[in-house]
Amino acid sequence: MGSFSTSAVRLGALAAFKSAVDAGSLNQAANLLFLSQSALSQQIRALETSLGVELLRRTSRGIEPTAEGSIFYDYCCEVLEQTVAVERQIRTMGEGSTEVWLGVETVLGEHLLPQALVAFRKANKDAGIRLIIDHTHEIVDAVRQGSVHLGIVPDREDDPHLRWTHLHDEPLVVICHPDHPLARAGEVDVSQLSDYPYVARESWTKCRQLSARALAEVGVSYDDLDIVAEMKTFAGKKSAVMANMGYSLAPWCGVWREVADGSLAEVPIRGYRLAYPVFLVERASCRLPKLHKILRTFLLGRTWGDAPYPRNYSGETSLRATLIEGCPT
């Protein structure tokens, strides 16, 4: 690459280049940015001149980035995301801010958090809550980058720049179709978990990792399960179980309604209760705005008992509570 001139690389030019790559067409990108095509082309040529390389090439389908352009595209994405995060943080640093940015892992955000946030809004009527729901690693990255001040995720990482506070222990239960042999038996022994078809999440998901660790705690290897399907989403896994494709492990917050209406059966594991920890994550060095401090205090002081407890949790108290690593006993 040639000599890099930062004066030529302004945010508008970065946004123009990213839009062109995303659209695959200079004309479409120009329309989206309310620019003329010649003005957009001029910005991209200025970038290429500054960098001393060609960033885009024309193809029969439009335009695409060169090898150098692909590298520069990743740079543009990072810079623009960081800019949005910094602007958001500055806007919310004022003590009078009435907007809260909260990032939550998908299953928790869709099933555990809604009632808590309703209660928070009742107590803080002027609070505006922006909820970002995504996979665990995306939420943790958002907290790390400052896109959100607080995150709620299962499990935790070893990162000295982040602070993790235990929030809740989410029950992990066996679910199956009401006509499944496990449902008819009424409970399952850990030795039987490998005897029936199992519906899993994909191996990269946190749900899969937590389930594998929970089963390992009771002496069952995930590799020994008869996995008949691997689902990308929690909703897909739940639908497969409801269709009697097999049984599965699932966080209680995501299935208790289906158990209550009879479309799923919850089967206690004889002698055990499974659960995984849920954490509130924030940057260790970050000064929280006033409203975020109020939300943090609310979440840490909340009793997470909106849903009825699974059978093993409301019955025999001498059962072994198996909480995977990081969760207090």
In short:
The protein is of the alpha/beta class and 329 residues long. It has helices spanning 11-23, 26-33, 37-51, 67-92, 106-123, 136-145, 181-185, 206-217, 234-242, 256-261, 290-301, 311-314, and strands at 56-59, 62-65, 99-105, 128-134, 150-154, 162-176, 197-201, 226-231, 248-251, 265-267, 272-283, 320-323. The protein has 3 domains: 6-90, Orthogonal Bundle (Arc Repressor Mutant, subunit A), CATH 1.10.10; 97-168 and 277-301, 3-Layer(aba) Sandwich (D-Maltodextrin-Binding Protein, domain 2); 169-276 and 309-323, Periplasmic binding protein-like II (D-Maltodextrin-Binding Protein, domain 2, 3-Layer(aba) Sandwich).
How many domains make up the coordinates? 3
H/E series:
HHHEEHEHEHEEHEHEHEHEEHHE
Give the overall pLDDT as a whole number: 86
Helix vs. strand class: alpha/beta
- Just give the CATH class of the largest domain: Alpha Beta
Strand runs, count: 12
Number of helical runs?
12
Architecture of the largest domain, CATH level 2? 3-Layer(aba) Sandwich
